[in-house]
Structure formats: C-alpha cells, structure tokens
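seq/struct pair 1
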Amino acid sequence: MGEGLYWSRDGRTAYAEPFEDLDPQDGCLWRDAWDDLVLAIRSNLGSTWHPVGGDFRGHGENIVARNGLHEVWLYEDSYARVHVTFGVRADLDVTDALARSLIDDRAEAFFDALQRTYPLRVRTSAWTSAPRETRRVAA
C-alpha cells in the first residue's frame, strides 16, 4: 500500500516533485523550486489567465492563476509532492456548469504542456499513482 494522495472534486490533479533532489534543510532552494514551478504553470496558460498570489481554497490550497471559469491551485503534501489542480473557480454561480463541462479538455491540454517541463504523476487510487500519460492527438 502507498500513501494517501490529494484529490479535489472540483478539478483534475497531477503532481510534480520539484523538491526531489534538494536538501530538505535548504529553505532557499525549496522556495526557488516552488517559484520555478509556479512560473512554469503560469507560462503554460493562455492570455486570459492572470497570476494570483495570497488566495487560498480550503486547507492550504494555494491559488496561483485564475481566468473567468477556472483556477490552478497547488497543495504540498507531507511527502514534499506538489499537487497541481486545474479546477473550477469556487466563486461561480451562473457559469459553474459551463466551467465543469470544459474542465476535462482544458485540464488535459494544460497538463500536456506542463509535462514538457516537469514529470507528472496522477492518482490511480487513494493510495497509488502512476506516471501521467500525455494525450495522443490524431494527425
């Protein structure tokens, strides 16, 4: 059995391990690795997105980018993995159904782009994960 993995009903999640080879005692390197991940996330989003700082969802889920329908938020677990979620904005009422209907394709396209920079893993059960597979697009 593995360890419990983060999950959100409001989005699609993959996780990266940006701290994997870093000294856990070196806070500066960890902060730089976090900032690099946030920069990579923001650079893989379109022009309708804007950076967010200091906004949180739930318990420690740090929102790093937002557009009219969706948000990207990060959650660091006790194993130093950073769970990246592409999800529906929490403050939607009228357009919530639209945002949910678009989530699968938009999230997968985002994760395909992010995976060019960071190896990503996805949850396969509450306790296990596997490498994320990039979508195959028909020619």
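seq/struct pair 2
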Amino acid sequence: MAWLNSLYSKMTVKIGQHEHHNNGSFCSEGAISQKRISSDTAKFHWVFWLSLILLMIIFGASLASGRYGISYGDTFRIVFSKILPIERTWNDIQEAVVIVYRLPRTVAAIIIGGVLALSGAAYQSIFKNPMVSPDLLGVSSGACVGAATAILMNASSVGIQLGAFAGGLIAVTITVMIPRLIRNESTTVLVLSGIVIGSLMSSIMSIIKFIADTDTQLAEITYWMMGSFARITFDNMLPVLPTIILPVIIILFMRYRLNVLSLGDNEAKTLGINLRTIRGIFILCSTLITASCVCLSGTIGWVGLVIPHTARMVIGSDNKKMLPIALIFGGIFMLVIDILCRTL
C-alpha cells in the first residue's frame, strides 16, 4: 500500500502542474485576445474621427473652390451668416454662388458618395463577392431607362427623377422575382438574374437613344447618364432624403448581421438567421439608396465598388467597424472628385 500511496501522490503533483500550466496558457491567450480587441477598437476610433475631421476640412474647401474665386473667410462668413449675426463683407453674387450653387452640390456629393459606398459594402457582404457593386441587380440600368423614358415624354425635372426612381425599383423587382419563379433562390441565380436584367435594360436604353430627337432629347439623355451634381438643388434633394436616410439607418443598425451572412448560408441558418428575410431587407435598403442617388445625380460608377475595399484595407473586414468608415470614405472621395471636376 505504501508504493500505491507514493504513486498517487506523484500523479496528483503532475496533474496539478499540468493544470496550472494550461490555466496560465488560457489566461495569456485571453489577455492577448482582449488586447487585440482593445487595439482594434482604438484604431477604429482614431480612423473614424480623423476621417470625420478630414471630411469637414474638404467640405470647407469645396465651398471655396470653383471658377468664381471667393476667399475662405468670406465663404465661412456667408454660410454662418444664416444662423449668426455677422457683419456683411460680401456681395450678393458671392452669396448666391456659395448658398445656391456650391452648398447643395457639396452636400449632395457627400451624401451620394457615402451612401453608395455603404450600399456597395453591404452588397459585397451579402453576396460574399468583392467584385459586387450597388448596380449588380440592374437598379442603375433600370433608372437610366426610366429617366430616358421621362425625357422622351418631355417631363419636368421632377418627372425625370420619379421616372428614374420607378425604373430602378421595377428592374430590381423583376430581378428578384426570377429566382422565385424558377424556385431557386440561391445567390448565384440572383446574380445571374441581375446580369440578364441589366443587359435587357441596356438594350432598351439603346432603342430609346435611337428614337430620341437628336437635337434636344438625345443630348439631355446622354448628359444625364454621365452623372453630375450641377443640377442638384435643395428643392429636388429634400424629397429624396427619406428614401436615403431611413435605409442607411437600417443598414447601420443591422450591420452585425452581415458578419453572420458572410460566414455562409449553412452557418447563418445554424445561428438562427432567416436568410430570406435578412437578405431581402438589405437588398431592399441598398436598392432604395441606389435608386435615390441615381435619380438625383445620374449614373455614378466605381464608388460602391472601390471605396469598400479601401475601408476594408484600413480597418479590417468586420462590418460593424467597416461600414461606418466606408460611409465617410465615400463622402470624402466623391467630394474630392467633385472639387477636381469644378477646378481643373
């Protein structure tokens, strides 16, 4: 019995040492993980606030940039004179240039660039494809057809906006209905449906341009398709803002679910995610955003494709952090491009 007690004592000591070693490993791994999370959060806060400050600086530069030279001091005094009692040191022409022309254009560039980047990031996560952009399901092509049809009917600017918005929604509705009709609602079939509808809308667009009046209508259609912020005013921007702001809020509020969707369909179902409902919500929100932007400014490409990649390289692939950064980066990018277009 003495040797048995001795063996038991040695085994107890070894087990205790082994458990102590494992506990130390677990503690060190937990500490490393906690430090990594804290580091990522700190990085997100730094990037977020620095990007926001940069956006504000470029916003001021945009108001002071253009063919008609206005100093930065007069520009800021003109803007703040609407809310503060400031001594007038500028003339009526300078005030009209800043308030009537540059301010709506600058605000529109920030909003449209930011939300297109956000929409593109959401699409890339939904379809698990880094080459996806907001016009994947045919919304841009459909909006172009709707706007061109309104121009053929000699509609007003409001009618053209409504036509573009309706055309985008109709195109995406047809795209979404095709997988249901063939009873295969996989993302691959949805993407193929979007390609088919986009090609169909492009063909219809070619027919419209062929029958359009070459002196007036064709030029207006071509100019609209090129995309521009020159015609945007607060009067035609305010009615569209609800269909932009509400979907943006929904996407940002539900952005953590995009991380689950990115894992794959089987993993998402295992975690209790209703794929059809969640995917439908994100597609609807992204479609409303894209259709609203296109009806305001015409077709603007690459923002929804390139900017999400830039944000992902800077902050990582976590959608909870990446989507807000993509929103700000998109506004900065579009504002810089607009300044270059006005000054070069």
